[in-house]
């Protein structure tokens, strides 16, 4: 996993509440055995509408998705964060996220930022008015900067550490490989081993 520190780029505005994971990554694409290639299927059904924001070429290179409350509700499919990342998003900004979705994002290196609804609406308005408007998210400093101003966001220390260090749960465990090996060496021979 790549470390997440500072994200800069443009925004795709999608102010909708309660966007669920079946809308983000529809069920028919969950049969794939690969972990790659999901970016093209993000919001598949909504993309049938030619006016859908991700069909607008002005937002084609957006690195930040700005959306409404309770983003990522529904099933716990990890394919939703995979697809969003593979589409090109490095961060999602919303007033709130579904807990499992937020956890899946963190485990895959996709930053979720919670800001108050008024600031979200300002960012959405800014992105609609100027698709080239820049945004800068500084995870170590926990700030979001744009023409709409500077906002601070909260993030739990464990998630922040994992993202800044570029660690997924396996990488986090491997940091303790020496201690795990020492423990395994002390185990009694008649007990099961993990090797």
Provide a descriptive summary of the structure in words.
This protein is α/β, with parallel strands linked by helices and 195 residues long. The chain has a single domain (6-166), classed as Alpha-Beta Barrel (Aconitase, domain 4), CATH 3.20.19. It contains 7 helices and 7 strands, in the order βαβαβαβαβββααα. The protein has helices at 21-24, 79-87, 99-107, 117-129, 157-165, 169-174, 177-186, and strands at residues 6-14, 64-67, 91-94, 111-114, 134-138, 143-146, 149-152. It has a 7-stranded mixed beta sheet with strand order 4-3-2-1-5-6-7. Strand 5 and strand 6 form a beta hairpin. The radius of gyration is 19 Å and the shape is globular.
The run of helices and strands is: EHEHEHEHEEEHHH
Overall strand count: 7
Inertia-based shape = globular
Largest sheet: 7 strands, mixed
Side-by-side strand order of the widest sheet: 4-3-2-1-5-6-7
CA-atom Rg in angstroms: 19 Å
Helix content: 25-40%
Strand content range: 15-25%
The first-level CATH class is given as: Alpha Beta
| Mean pLDDT figure | 94
Unreliable residue runs: none
Q: What name does the CATH topology carry?
A: Aconitase, domain 4
Total count of helical runs of at least 4 residues: 7
- For the record, the count of structural domains works out to 1
Structural class by sheet pairing and helices: alpha/beta
End-to-end gap: 25 Å
Q: Can you tell me the CATH architecture?
A: Alpha-Beta Barrel
Q: What is the fourth-level CATH superfamily?
A: Aconitase, domain 4
């Amino acid at each position: 996993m790549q470390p997440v520190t500072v994200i800069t780029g443009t925004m795709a505005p999608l102010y909708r509440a309660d966007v669920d994971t079946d809308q983000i990554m529809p069920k028919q694409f969950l049969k794939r055995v690969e972990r790659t290639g999901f970016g093209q299927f993000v919001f598949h059904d909504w993309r049938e509408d030619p006016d859908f924001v991700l069909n607008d070429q002005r937002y084609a290179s957006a690195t930040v998705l700005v959306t409404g409350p309770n983003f990522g509700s529904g099933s716990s499919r990890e394919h939703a964060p995979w697809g969003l990342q593979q589409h090109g998003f490095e961060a999602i900004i919303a007033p709130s996220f579904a807990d499992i979705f937020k956890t899946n994002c963190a485990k895959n290196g996709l930053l979720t930022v919670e800001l108050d609804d008024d600031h979200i609406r300002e960012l959405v308005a800014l992105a609609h008015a100027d698709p080239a408007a820049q945004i800068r998210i500084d995870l170590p400093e926990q700030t979001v900067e744009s023409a709409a101003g500077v906002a601070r966001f909260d993030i739990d220390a464990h998630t922040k550490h994992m993202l800044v260090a570029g660690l997924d749960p396996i990488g986090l465990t491997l940091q303790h490989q020496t201690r795990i090996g020492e423990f395994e060496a002390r185990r009694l021979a008649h007990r099961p081993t993990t090797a």
